[in-house]
Design a protein that fits this description.
mainly alpha
């Protein structure tokens, strides 16, 4: 599953949505944003096509969560173009 992007990357709002792309832009311009990652739309498409998707990829998401080294996390769910 290669559809997990770090917010430190320059992100395209058509792939990850406006909120994640904006957080990415803020980080790249030096604004203090907590570390994070986003699951892009390719992962959602794969999820719809594979009923065992969650079982197969749970450890990948857990690994990314562990890399944040934070006791607490915030999850934001939205759709591409939701705020358009």
């Amino acid at each position: 599953m290669n559809g997990i992007k770090n917010l430190k990357e320059i992100l395209d709002s058509n792939i990850v949505g406006g909120k994640a792309a904006s957080l990415s832009a803020m980080l790249s311009s030096g604004i203090n944003v907590p570390p994070g990652f986003v699951i892009d739309k390719s992962v959602y498409k794969s999820y719809l096509e594979d009923e065992d998707f969650l079982i197969k990829h749970k450890s990948i998401v857990e690994n990314h969560l562990g890399q944040l080294k934070s006791k607490f996390v915030m999850v934001r769910s939205s759709a591409i173009g939701e705020d358009s």
